[in-house]
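To illustrate the input format used throughout this study, we show a single complete record. The first block contains the structure-token representation of the backbone; no residue identities are included at this stage. The design step must infer an amino acid for every position from geometry alone.
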């Protein structure tokens, strides 16, 4: 009985990871933002309205924890793709169509979102309580309001 000889191919291997897949075409968006650094979230904030600088909105966002993103802080491949302000107090900040790019730590953004969800829930409860109080002496009582809807299709 003869042993078959095993041949080993020592040529370099081509990795699939190095192949870059083509991205499908999509219409360009003026508000495409570069990826945020680790632990941050990017957001466009209003810088002007009707041609006038909206200082109150900008400073409000800065007090909430947002930081304006300067073009020189972006990765090299994005520096020439996004326009920045040439002059004024915010010179060098990435800006498109009256909006400026800002970043906020993810933890701060989550705390902010939780705060506004809580405020919205408190407002709904206040409206419900006021409605029940106004209706307390009526002969037609309002039951607890339902805040969800149900949609069915076809046979029930």
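Output of the design step:
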């Amino acid at each position: 009985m003869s042993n078959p000889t095993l041949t080993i191919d020592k040529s370099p291997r081509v990795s699939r990871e190095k192949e870059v897949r083509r991205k499908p075409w999509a219409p360009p968006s003026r508000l495409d933002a570069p990826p945020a650094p680790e632990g941050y979230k990017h957001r466009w904030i209003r810088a002007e309205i009707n041609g006038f600088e909206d200082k109150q909105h900008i400073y409000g966002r800065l007090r909430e924890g947002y930081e304006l993103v300067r073009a020189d802080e972006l990765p090299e491949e994005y520096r020439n793709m996004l326009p920045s302000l040439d002059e004024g107090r915010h010179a060098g900040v990435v800006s498109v169509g009256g909006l400026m790019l800002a970043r906020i730590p993810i933890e701060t953004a989550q705390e902010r979102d939780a705060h506004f969800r809580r405020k919205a829930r408190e407002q709904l409860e206040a409206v419900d309580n006021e409605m029940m109080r106004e209706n307390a002496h009526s002969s037609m009582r309002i039951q607890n309001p339902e805040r969800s809807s149900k949609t069915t299709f076809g046979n029930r």
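Structural context for interpreting the output: The two ends are 74 Å apart (CA to CA). The CA atoms of residues 34 and 78 lie 7 Å apart.
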